[in-house]
């Protein structure tokens, strides 16, 4: 394989860089927050390192509802500033990665006795558009019953009063995270997965000046020296504060949300839906490339943060919520294709339920100098990062080569960005026409462009090299794997299956069919022995069982 700027082949080189010299900033945590801070810091001229104990985006940043949304529900909680800021940020992230942050019209159906009155929804959506700076065709429309059913005929007619129709943005959270990481690497940040921060290092005045790490792939300890250390570990933020002996005052409230995936033939929605259920919570139904997923729950979680279960109560709650709106659609646990559970790091507020707690972010700075970024949401990652780096720049004082202000709103998250949705459609059509007799299907091509943008051309180069393979689907999945190995620091099968390609959740059938071929490819590239092969095979099969919630379905 050819060497690239972020290939598994460069892992040892990255390890050497982490151990040489002193970094201006060390970031612990490779989710969207840590990724954003790494990009912001490196693009301002700070010497930046990032380490993640598992794979990038392996926590909350691969298990959200996968929306870059403007925070409509925060308007209900009168969090005006949050709505305004997230609305602006949504537009910026869409501009920086238009193939990956895609505008979709979302429908908020209004039912007599089941939801907020139509006039109140109209007023709320009007305020939402105003605060979020929504323009043109993306502005809200209020539809009557007939107009609503014309757009979404699956909705029950009984008691339907109409709907609100407004703009949201669909994304792939893990892919957004890896694209931010890759962009930070292009700005000369050193970012590495499977490197765990074990201990903070302190100078003789008790100030943090580095971390002791353990590389889980090379099985060795080493030190990283740095002037500032940022704790961007999401749901583990308080664990790191405890390690620093600085956990006091405000702390996190960890809540769990789950999502259930169904074949689109079973749940053939035309548009994403956002609807209110009898207990006052809001539920999403989102169609995407052949599937429709339903979520989310919102319950306080105190279990193992590394192993988050989808349990029977979660499934029952979501199915019950679904049936409250769609009593004639008989969705059962056996219809679930896949499921995932994720945790949200909220900042605890006394007297508020999990669904009422704000998604605001805060920065905590300990006496030792540890900078902890807590709370927040996917949509606001760039602004959160800017706030954290502003603190570092202010502490660092005057440096000729350091930019005082963030420049990330003008840094594309791809080499060759699309200018518009129309250009994406034209690109797909042109690419399809140029494929010739070795074509894959158009739906698959659309899915690849959504995930990789124009990088799909590199995947298709690999596809052409596998001409002796008669199985087109197998050719494609191996081509996608090769690209991710060469360009996205894939080191284990689940890095690719779950976080780079999202196949584990959205193309589960292809994982079941081809995971042994993927394991064989890994074994060939990484020279696995039989023990390693068995361990990785067991890990993939265990995760498949979890995603397919086989134990839960067996109970029904």
Which short descriptors sum up this protein?
6-stranded antiparallel beta sheet, Helicase, Ruva Protein, domain 3, 40% helix, alpha+beta, D-Amino Acid Oxidase, Chain A, domain 2, FAD/NAD(P)-binding domain, 556 residues
Question: How does this model look, in words?
Answer:
The structure is a single chain. The chain has 556 residues and is an alpha+beta fold. The chain has three domains: 8-60 and 174-250 and 359-410, FAD/NAD(P)-binding domain, CATH 3.50.50.60; 252-347, D-Amino Acid Oxidase, Chain A, domain 2; 421-555, Helicase, Ruva Protein, domain 3 (Orthogonal Bundle). Helices cover 40% and strands 21% of the residues. Strands 1, 2, 6, 7, 8, 9, 16 and 17 form an eight-stranded mixed beta sheet that branches. Strands 10, 11, 12, 13, 14 and 15 form a six-stranded antiparallel beta sheet that branches. Helix 2 runs parallel beside helix 7 (173-186) and helix 17 runs antiparallel to helix 18 (530-547). The longest helix is centred in the last third of the chain and has 19 residues, at 508-526. 47% of the residues are buried. The model has no long low-confidence stretch (mean pLDDT 91).
> What would you report as the Rg, rounded to the nearest angstrom?
23 Å
- Mean pLDDT, as a whole number? 91
CATH superfamily of the largest domain: FAD/NAD(P)-binding domain
Given helix and strand content, the structural type is alpha+beta
Q: Please count the helical segments.
A: 19
Q: How many discrete structural domains?
A: 3
CATH T-level fold name of the largest domain:
FAD/NAD(P)-binding domain
Q: How much of the polypeptide forms β-strand, as a percent range?
A: 15-25%
Q: Regarding CATH, which class of the largest domain?
A: Alpha Beta
